[in-house]
Design brief:
With 112 residues, this protein is of the alpha+beta class. 17% of the residues lie in helices and 45% in strands. The protein has an eight-stranded mixed β-sheet.
């Protein structure tokens, strides 16, 4: 809808979408990060909604090695992984996203 094309300028970075994480933190998907995702994982071009949904309503949340969080959901018989960082209790951003056929081998923080 109309909200999907809205761009808001925050800190002079174009925000494509925002979503509230499982922890209640507003997570930004910036244009720069979206371009990064598409550059490395072109198969995700039509999956922006699924990426946002994975942050909002994951099947599993894993601990990262450097303070990031990995949210995972099953999509089309694959794991959709979204790495993001919560920089405060109110703000964060998506780092990257990818599809894989194997679950992540990291400590589980939360599972549905």
């Amino acid at each position: 809808g109309a909200w999907g094309t809205q761009r808001v300028c925050v800190w002079r970075v174009a925000v494509v979408r925002t979503v509230v994480s499982h922890n209640g933190v507003t997570i930004r998907l910036t244009n720069e990060r979206w371009e990064h995702i598409l550059d490395r994982h072109p198969a995700l071009h039509a999956m922006q909604d699924e990426i946002i949904q994975t942050v909002a309503d994951p099947d599993t949340i894993y601990e990262g090695e450097h303070g990031e969080i990995f949210a995972a959901r099953i999509e089309h018989d694959l794991y959709l992984i979204v790495a993001y960082r919560e920089t405060s209790t109110e703000d964060g951003f998506i780092i990257t996203s990818y599809l894989t056929n194997e679950p992540i081998d990291r400590r589980v923080l939360w599972k549905r």
